[in-house]
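Practice problem: predict the structure.
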Amino acid sequence: MTPNSLAIFPIDQVLGAFEKGDVPALLTHIADDVDFRIDHYRDEADTSWQIARDKTALLMVLQRLAQEVFPRGTQILHTHSQPLGNDWVLTKFHQRFFYAVQAREVESLTWIVSHSENGQLDYFRESVTTITPI
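Answer:
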């Protein structure tokens, strides 16, 4: 992972823990009332279940992601977070993983808009823009 060289934001800590498969560490950076959603651009995958309104629901989403999307984990190729002001951050997230939905190795570029308060993410919107077979 290559985080922003000037600052590490809560989103960077969440993504780092996600790559390591360290759910307890990931959850320490998530607010109890998190507003979480993942959307896909031009992919037929059903993402209706990739929504959570609290930490308990997020844990269920993470468990399902681990089984159905990332059964072999993920490797972060690059990430860069840019502050937008007022605790909002835009993150470019490039990863490589075995995509169980398509049963093949892929690289994916996503954009994440996040907000944090007191070091915990309370808003997370990920837009998956590419899923490229490798």
